[in-house]
Amino acid sequence: MRPGELDAGHIERWRELRALSGAPANPFMEPEFTRAVGRVRPGARVAVVEGAGEAVVGFFPYERGPLGQGRAIGFGVSDCQGPVLSPEHGLTAVELLRACSLTSWEFDNLEAGQVLFAPDATEEFDSPVIDIGQGYAAYESALRAGSPKFFRTTTAKERRLARQAGEVRFVFDERDPAALRTLMGWKSAQYRRTGRRDRFAKEWISVLVRQLAADHTPDSAPGCSGVLSVLYVADRPVAAHFGLRSRTVLSCWFPAYDTDFAKYSPGLILHLRMAEAAAGAGIGLLDLGRGAAEYKDALKTGNLRVHEGASVRPGPRAALYRLGREPSRRAHSFVRNRPKLAGYAQRALNQVGRLRDR
Question: Where is the BioF2-like acetyltransferase domain (predicted)?
């Protein structure tokens, strides 16, 4: 069915199955995210898996292309992917794809523990996390002990920012649409500056983010809700982040800052303030998302694991899929796994970004 056709009973059962899985309550795996994608992606679907007596034993959100190629729901922006299944579902990956008329299903952030598709993963990645389940004070103490220079430098920059630019103010859940537009502008400029594809140049991504920002869920409610956090100096935004939260997990998604204030590291200040506010709101985990970055290494307390790959049904279309996708995937993997070569690639991307801005 289309995501918008899920009824209250489906939503309740989806939540039950997620709770039974024991996995972190990642908002990308909640029904609200799938329904939001369904409003902007016409190929979005959800397979409802029924067991004995028509009892629902699972849900499989996906997007379907014109020739039956499937992708994870929200592929390209979703940071946690996979079906939501009871242990008694009794399906194989091939049977599920066949029932959905899919020749393949591609994923780039498959959740750890997704046994149905895990055998088809070709690579595994760290997704750094900040554990604030014991409260912010405990996290700060661990940060002081494990990264004392980083913590001292960041807090000193915050004090200097206040002295030199004005009062520093933080809002965890900002509802002003102008702040979101500012963040999206900063992020687009960052993509161009670093030679990367501007995600917000895709209309469906821009609309999806704006809709999720507008769909405000109470802190006590389960599910998926957009959270815009902003660091202000003298009422001027200098850093911001838009992410998704469930009751217990905040998935970090789109952080950016005003480059005029780069010397103060406003993005790092923002992340520390976010961790403190999230802990106060009952959130126990910040998922920083897959991808290497110095700031993630400095802030993290551990890692989750995510997988990349594709499940492909046997047949002639499987060969076409591999011819179209595997060379590119292997080339990216080759570069990623060689730090020196990855450094050359990053410098080349930065040069492309500088040329774009001329």
Answer: 151-296
